[in-house]
């Protein structure tokens, strides 16, 4: 009995030692990583500006190109290959009403067709006129008025008597500047455009008012803040025209 127990014990010890040896020498189990398939994003070809296009520039075939955009980011105003596959050819020769930056989606609302007319005539909305007025650095906000800014037009009347006060009144409010001399946009990063004439966008009645004001006295342009560019009425003292005491030195 004792010999049998010893044999069983030796066999058990041997099996345990063999199992431990096998466990120590076996490589660790590898962790299997299951990669999820990448989510596919639906894209659509959008017509974009392949170069910078300045205001008034004619669009050439090489200036615009198709580019893949996420379908969710393509607004309804964008031009897509699906709906207008011939857009690059159809829009060639149009004129940029406003500037396009490289990579910016092309929108037809920002393009015009001259159809033989000059750029300014094509740029004007229906019913509007382009009317020029003489300016100087003193009457044109020292040259800080740029195309597409909004201005008020101020008429200053002087009496024939040197002792009489001069009167100033706002005759036109919140009108758009189309150009300063021949400059229709900011050029080469310049922030000041000093010119001798400013071209304003006016309707027929406003054109008559400006013509009458030019014969009645001197004209000045007052630059409006972007914040109040949507206002339609000038700010006046007590609802009356502002009077400047030119001869006496009185304030307003």
Order of helices and strands: HEEHEEHEEEEHEE
Secondary structure tally, helices:
4
Compute the separation of the termini in Å.
129 Å
Give a quick account of the main beta sheet: strands, pairing sense, barrel closure: 6 strands, antiparallel
Overall morphology = elongated
Computed over alpha carbons, the radius of gyration is 38 Å
Let me know the average pLDDT.
Answer: 76
Structural class, please? alpha+beta
Quantity of strands, as a count = 10
Low-confidence stretches: 234-252
The percentage helix is 10-25%
Q: Classify the beta-strand content into a percent band.
A: 25-35%
List keywords for this structure.
252 residues; Flp pilus assembly protein CpaB; alpha+beta; Type Iii Antifreeze Protein Isoform Hplc 12; 6-stranded antiparallel beta sheet; RcpC_dom; 10 strands; Pilus_assmbl_Flp-typ_CpaB; signal; SAF; two-stranded antiparallel ribbon; disordered C terminus
């Amino acid at each position: 009995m004792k010999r049998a127990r010893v044999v069983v014990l030796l066999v058990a010890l041997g099996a345990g030692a063999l199992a431990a040896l096998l466990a120590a020498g076996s490589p660790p189990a590898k962790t299997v990583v299951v990669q999820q398939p990448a989510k596919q994003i639906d894209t659509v070809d959008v017509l974009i500006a392949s170069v910078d296009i300045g205001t008034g520039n004619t669009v050439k075939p090489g200036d615009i190109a198709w580019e893949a955009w996420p379908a969710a980011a393509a607004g309804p105003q964008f031009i897509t290959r699906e709906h207008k596959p011939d857009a690059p050819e159809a829009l060639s020769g149009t004129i940029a009403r406003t500037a396009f930056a490289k990579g910016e989606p092309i929108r037809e609302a920002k393009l015009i067709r001259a159809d033989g007319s000059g750029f300014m005539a094509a740029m004007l909305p229906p019913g509007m006129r382009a009317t020029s007025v003489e300016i100087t650095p003193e009457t044109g906000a020292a040259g800080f008025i740029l195309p597409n800014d909004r201005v008020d037009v101020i008429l200053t009347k002087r009496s024939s008597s040197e002792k009489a006060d001069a009167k100033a009144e706002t005759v036109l409010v919140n009108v758009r500047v189309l150009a300063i001399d021949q400059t229709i946009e900011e050029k080469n990063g310049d922030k000041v455009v000093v010119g001798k004439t400013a071209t304003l966008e006016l309707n027929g009645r406003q054109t008559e008012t400006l013509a009458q004001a030019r014969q009645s006295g001197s004209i000045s342009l007052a630059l409006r803040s972007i914040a109040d560019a949507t206002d339609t009425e000038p700010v006046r003292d007590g609802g009356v025209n502002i009077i400047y005491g030119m001869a006496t030195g009185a304030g307003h």
